[in-house]
């Protein structure tokens, strides 16, 4: 998602794009992505539900015939994707090709555009809101079997996109290297000079976008007015406190980025290797967000792409997400019917009071403001 992923996922990664820019002679072969005819008579690339394949058994058979699935921008320690990928591959005997795990949401779209028609193109996307909603023409509508379990607010009515998991924006810090952070305003103090990192570029990365929004709320802004957040980062940069380094587990462990603004589940994953790492979800102005799952309409493995969606929204897939510290989109339904693992359910973060989740319209307006003002503020 690092749009971000892990403290890496939704970063604006330039170098990995070289993977897709090789000489023509080395380019992957062209791929006819239509896929086999389904039981309903449409091609696999046109299937809108498992019913087109005659049910799940037919979909599994078609996906196994393709034999592979291409995913992109899914670090193994982001939302437990390492375990998710392994479980899917083992369950269905399908090889999963995981490209550019450190890429941003925008990089996912760029890769699909650059690789269109080739066997290496991404089959599926996992995107931040702003990038997802700007590129819906690239998505193939598909409704998983559990589609009706997903609240209307978290999906497109035709299945063009569906939210998959979410969390809260947070501030992670190494209590062994910096004073405790009690709120956003602390970050302007001299003790944090050269120490505050943001997960990516907010014009490209969902995590960074939500981080600026969280800061904006703390400064009197709103989902309709992100300008105070940009102004705060300008002050942070002028004070020398803003660290223009994309945080990774390595930079956190080494102490290079001792304060990181990122999703709570991404920051929380650092505590396993670094016990002094502490995570704060500012209680006064919590910001929540979900990532967007979609199928590339030009997927080289269209049946496998659809089976991947079925797996992600199954009880098994949703529980695997929850084990990664994220809130799966079907969590409420699964809690009610007793299918959400009690251990992981108990570990899901709970925030009291109102939570800000920007609407698509608010995200679009804020993204426009960021594109026009962010670089000048922190440059």
Summarize the structure.
34% of the residues lie in helices and 13% in strands.
Question: Main sheet?
Answer: 7 strands, mixed
Arithmetic mean of pLDDT:
89
Q: What oligomeric state do these chains adopt?
A: single chain
Shape: globular
Low-pLDDT regions: 1-27
Please characterize this protein's 3D structure.
The chain has 379 residues and is α+β, with helices and mostly antiparallel strands. The chain folds into two domains: 49-166 and 289-344, Periplasmic binding protein-like II (D-Maltodextrin-Binding Protein, domain 2), CATH 3.40.190; 168-287 and 356-378, D-Maltodextrin-Binding Protein, domain 2. It contains 14 helices and nine strands. It has helices at 6-9, 56-66, 81-92, 105-114, 129-133, 206-218, 227-238, 249-254, 264-268, 302-312, 315-323, 331-337, 342-347, 360-378; strands at residues 68-72, 95-99, 124-127, 162-174, 196-198, 259-263, 277-280, 288-295, 327-328. Strands 3, 4, 5, 6, 7, 8 and 9 form a seven-stranded mixed beta sheet that branches. α3 (81-92) links the parallel β1 and β2. It is globular. The two termini are 25 Å apart. Residues 1-27 have low confidence and may be disordered. One of its GO terms (biological process) is thiamine transport. Residues 1-26 form the signal peptide. GO terms for molecular function: thiamine binding; thiamine pyrophosphate binding. It comes from Mycolicibacterium iranicum (Mycobacterium iranicum). Pfam families: SBP_bac_6 (PF13343).
């Amino acid at each position: 998602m690092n749009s971000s992923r892990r403290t890496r996922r939704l970063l604006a990664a330039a170098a990995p794009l070289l993977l897709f820019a090789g000489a023509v002679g080395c380019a992957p072969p062209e791929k006819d992505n239509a896929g086999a005819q389904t039981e309903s008579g449409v091609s696999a690339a046109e299937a809108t539900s498992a019913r087109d394949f005659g049910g799940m058994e037919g979909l599994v058979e078609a996906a196994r015939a393709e034999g592979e699935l291409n995913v992109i921008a899914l670090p193994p320690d982001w939302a437990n994707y390492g375990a998710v990928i392994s479980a899917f591959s083992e369950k269905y005997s399908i090889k999963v090709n995981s490209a550019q795990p450190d890429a941003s949401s925008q990089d996912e779209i760029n890769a699909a555009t650059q690789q269109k028609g080739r066997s290496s193109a991404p089959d599926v996307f996992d995107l931040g809101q702003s990038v997802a909603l700007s590129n819906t023409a690239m998505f193939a509508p598909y409704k998983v079997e559990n589609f009706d379990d997903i609240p209307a607010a978290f999906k497109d009515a035709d299945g063009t996109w569906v939210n998959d998991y979410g969390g809260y924006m947070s501030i992670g810090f190494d209590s062994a290297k910096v004073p405790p952070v009690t709120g956003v305003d602390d970050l302007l103090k001299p003790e944090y000079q050269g120490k505050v990192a943001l997960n990516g570029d907010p014009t490209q990365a969902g995590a960074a976008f939500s981080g600026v929004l969280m800061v904006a709320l703390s400064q009197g802004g709103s989902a309709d007015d992100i300008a105070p957040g940009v102004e705060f980062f300008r002050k942070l940069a002028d004070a020398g406190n803003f660290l223009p380094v994309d945080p990774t587990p390595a930079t956190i462990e080494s102490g290079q980025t001792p304060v990181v603004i990122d999703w709570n589940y991404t920051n929380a994953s650092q505590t396993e290797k670094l016990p002094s790492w502490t995570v704060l979800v500012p209680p006064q102005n919590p910001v929540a967000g979900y990532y967007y799952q979609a199928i590339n309409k030009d997927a080289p493995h269209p049946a496998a792409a659809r089976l991947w969606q079925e797996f992600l929204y199954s009880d098994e897939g949703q529980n695997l997400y929850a084990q990664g510290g994220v809130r799966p989109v079907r969590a409420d339904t699964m809690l009610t019917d007793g299918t959400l693992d009690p251990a992981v359910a108990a570990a899901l973060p709970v925030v009291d009071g109102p939570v800000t989740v920007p609407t698509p319209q608010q995200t679009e307006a804020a993204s426009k403001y960021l594109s026009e003002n962010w670089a000048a503020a922190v440059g």
